């Protein structure tokens, strides 16, 4: 391996690990990284548990609802809705996630529901639940994966 190749690998590793930016990877490398991450986490890659997203100039992986549902199953995470409330046009759901060892984490999911009706209102309620469950799952497992608060909601 040449010094240049080693230097390029170090820069790539730095970009990936320290900055969380996947944009420096070639398509084949992205596929390998995706597969390896799924294997490490016990996820079925064929169900597409992650999406590649551009965010703040970086390409990142976003764990979908499918990813967190699989993670909950694989790691025995129990998720319970402990509170649902409306505050000033915002619907807030609090979920508690727990592990068999007794560890617990609580997270919230919130969406604007002001002026929503019909299906849009129903979808917003479900979205708040999904957000809370997803956040609680990632929190209890200590995974530093992209959180929807970093996306447009």
- Please give the order of strands in the largest beta sheet: 3-4-5
Order of helices and strands: HHEEHEEEH
Structural class: alpha+beta
Rounded average pLDDT: 87
Strand percentage: 25-35%
User: Oligomerization state of this entry?
Assistant: single chain
Count of individual helical segments? 4
Query: Uncertain spans, ≥5 residues at pLDDT below 50?
Result: 1-5
Number of domains: 2
State the end-to-end distance: 45 Å
Helix content: 40-55%
Detail the topology: elements first, then pairings.
Blueprint: H1 3-18, H2 27-41, E1 50-55, E2 58-63, H3 65-75, E3 78-87, E4 90-98, E5 104-112, H4 118-140
Helix pairs in contact: 3-4
């Amino acid at each position: 391996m040449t010094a240049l190749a080693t230097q390029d690998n170090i820069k790539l590793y730095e970009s990936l690990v320290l900055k969380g930016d996947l944009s420096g990877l070639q398509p084949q490398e992205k596929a390998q990284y995706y597969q390896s991450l799924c294997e490490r986490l016990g996820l079925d890659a064929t169900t597409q548990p992650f999406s590649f997203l551009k965010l703040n100039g970086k390409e990142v992986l976003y764990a979908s609802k499918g990813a967190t549902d699989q993670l909950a199953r694989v790691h025995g995470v129990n998720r319970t809705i402990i509170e649902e409330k409306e505050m000033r046009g915002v619907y807030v759901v609090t979920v508690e996630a727990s592990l068999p060892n007794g560890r617990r984490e609580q997270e919230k999911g919130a969406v604007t529901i002001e002026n929503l009706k019909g299906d849009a209102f129903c979808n917003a309620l479900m979205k708040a639940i999904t957000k809370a469950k997803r956040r609680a799952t990632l929190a209890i497992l200590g995974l530093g994966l992209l959180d929807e608060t970093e996306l447009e909601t």
